[in-house]
Amino acid sequence: MTAKLSEMEQIKARSRFLRGTIAEGLADPLTGAISDDDSKLLKFHGSYQQDDRDLRDERRRQKLEPAYSFMIRARLPGGVVTPAQWLAFDALAREHANGTLRITTRQTFQWHGVIKRELKPTIAAIHRALATTIAACGDVVRTVVCTPNPVESAAHAAAYAWAAKLSEHLAPRTRAYHEIWLDGEKLVGGDEEPLYGPTYLPRKFKIGLAIPPLNDIDVFAQDLGLIAVVEQGELRGFDVAVGGGMGATHGDAGTYPRLASVIGFVAPERLVAVAEAVIGIQRDWGNRSERKHARLKYTLDHRGLDTFVAELERRLGFALEPARPYRFEHNGDRYGWTEGQDGRWHLTLHIESGRLADAGGRRALTGLRELARVHRGDFRLTCNQNVIVANVEPAGRARIDAIVAAHGLDGYRRGSAIRRHALACVALPTCGLAMAESERYLPALLPQLEALLERHGLADAPILLRLSGCPNGCSRPYLGEIALVGRGPGRYDLRLGADFRGQRLNQIYRENIDEATILATLDPLFARYAAERTESEGFGDFLYRVGELVAPARRTIPPEVCA
Ligand code: SRM
Ligand code: SF4
């Protein structure tokens, strides 16, 4: 018997290629919201309806509707932003949003707090800045992320060009976006979505391209991960990895984080065909009844990797070549100045939780705006929520350094190693799924961890810390050497043991604990690490070597994952 399609599938099917009644909803002045169905379709256009969760109870008491506003996410392939775009995005943050720009863990910008009547002007302004928000969210291929220092060598530039090409090629074709947001003419006749069809994909689909030795995009967390193979300075092609994903639900063993499986090598000229075929299989085989089991990782585990690869090669009409060897050193960012092969320089700045704001004595938002006013190169957002001031002529470095220092953006020089490598997802007050604080908790947690590490002589230990307000895993917490995953207000699962190369998932060490217990649990582990670690041994690797953690049993796939 065929299972009933999920509600979302039915909404997509009757949406007329993502139109729904969004345009009508935007025009309704009686509410700050749009209808439930439209808010689900809105995601495909790059926006989420949210409400300020700090104000929920008070507004309910006052019998007011929730304080609705919208989050907007741009689609910026490879995280590349020109200075002109930066200035336009900064102005939108100040004039239409909550005065901040948020760099996400997929190297793009989010604006929070945009009220309904500002939504259309803001999206139109993003379009005028030669960017888009289409398919930044929704059941489609999202922005393709890429190791963000592509001009380091010719091979880096070639790899980035493939990421940009894929991102463009795999974007939806519907004219709905132009009609709703850009006052484009109404389409006469039918829309076409040659790749997706009228109901798009069963679930979100993420592609990332890593250029070894940096795994700064966490390539194994992608539905489709591409590892650039560079030999004698030339881009030869890509190792292909499928079925990565982080999201899980507390207490539901049928959901889990999974690292992508490497299935072979492909030459550049065949890359688009391979990507289309992988996406096509997921479109046809993915679970459209139960969204919790609809990501490619579950399709793969249900059908079996061998069956998937056989189907892929059948659709392609050729076999993938055997995967080529690759080696990753780490999945963090390299702070400070680095020189590219062409003699230009790149400065990686640390932005705590990716939040660019003028607050707490720091003027990060204004500092970056001042940089954009003088900078002649471009900017690169990173998947670790940071920004690279890229392509600086040697003579321009001093001026950049001065602006950085004047606005307190030089934290990358001073911050502890754990601070520089920490990631935290947005969580409260805007995220509707948050169970605990994340971005707002990081500034309180870090000094306590720093004090603990200092006490054990570990102030310089580069430990990878990741915080998420719920198990959906937006900061890719399952790849943190230490991770906190929200359970409820002030309570987290403590997970330990990833490897700082993005190649090993961590595991739960203590469940549902508060801050005092987190610190008390880490204290003896830090003491042991300080006393017994070998030279340059990572914290996660150490915990396994000394037996504090044992390798988890091989996962068996529970039956409820079946499509
Ligand atoms: Fe995420 C949902 C924020 C990267 C897995 N994510 C959400 C929503 C939209 C909440 C919602 O559905 O109502 C969050 C909006 C919060 C807000 O107020 O802004 C949200 N996710 C984010 C961002 C902004 C976190 C950040 O601090 O940077 C990241 C935006 C990325 C982007 O630019 O596209 C973000 N989300 C991720 C990642 C990391 C990655 O892709 O590398 C993951 C894990 C990888 C993966 O997809 O498996 C991730 N987000 C999820 C999930 C779980 C999906 C699943 O398969 O179970 C959800 C919930 C869902 O889709 O139902 C989710
Ligand atoms: Fe929200 Fe959870 Fe994602 Fe954090 S991990 S942004 S709390 S969905």
From TrEMBL:
Siroheme binds at residue 474. It comes from Aerosticca soli. Signal peptide: none annotated. Alpha(8)-beta(8). The alpha component is a flavoprotein, the beta component is a hemoprotein. Keywords: 4Fe-4S, Amino-acid biosynthesis, Cysteine biosynthesis, Heme, Iron, Iron-sulfur, Metal-binding, NADP, Oxidoreductase. One of its GO terms (molecular function) is NADP binding. Its EC number is 1.8.1.2. It catalyses: hydrogen sulfide + 3 NADP(+) + 3 H2O = sulfite + 3 NADPH + 4 H(+). Coiled coil: none annotated. The keyword Metal-binding applies. Residues 68-127, 341-406 form the Nitrite/Sulfite reductase ferredoxin-like domain. Binds 1 [4Fe-4S] cluster per subunit. Its cofactor is [4Fe-4S] cluster; siroheme. Belongs to the nitrite and sulfite reductase 4Fe-4S domain family. [4Fe-4S] cluster binds at residues 425, 431, 470, 474. This is Sulfite reductase [NADPH] hemoprotein beta-component. Pathway: Sulfur metabolism; hydrogen sulfide biosynthesis; hydrogen sulfide from sulfite (NADPH route): step 1/1. Component of the sulfite reductase complex that catalyzes the 6-electron reduction of sulfite to sulfide. This is one of several activities required for the biosynthesis of L-cysteine from sulfate. GO terms for biological process: cysteine biosynthetic process; hydrogen sulfide biosynthetic process; sulfate assimilation. GO terms for cellular component: sulfite reductase complex (NADPH). The keyword Cell inner membrane does not apply. Residues 163-317 form the Nitrite/sulphite reductase 4Fe-4S domain.
